[in-house]
Amino acid sequence: MIRILIVDNHPIVRTGLELFLNSKPDLKVVGKLSSGIEIFEFVRRNEVDVIISEIDLPELNGITALRAIKKENQSVNVLMFSHQPEEIYAISTLKAGASGYLNKTASVEEIEA
Pick from 32, 37, 68, 98: most CB atoms within 10 A? Predict the structure, then answer.
């Protein structure tokens, strides 16, 4: 079972991802957060395998949060999932430690993979 944390400041995105991912037998959403600052406490208190995070988050942006998370939890995979242009942000997020980058125009099959 892959335990997933969803971090996005849009409730509809969090809910949509949760409904889709929880419909898959090997995936389980263990939390949904709306800001980057909340990630640290959640990951310290809960087992998380994958974080799906937006870049544009209130209080602490996703790339800054990603760098700090990877310092504390190298085993957690982080998928940046954003509306920001890939040509600008994909390389930055990968260099910061992300396992991947998907644009929010990605299909549900791409998100699942």
Answer: 98
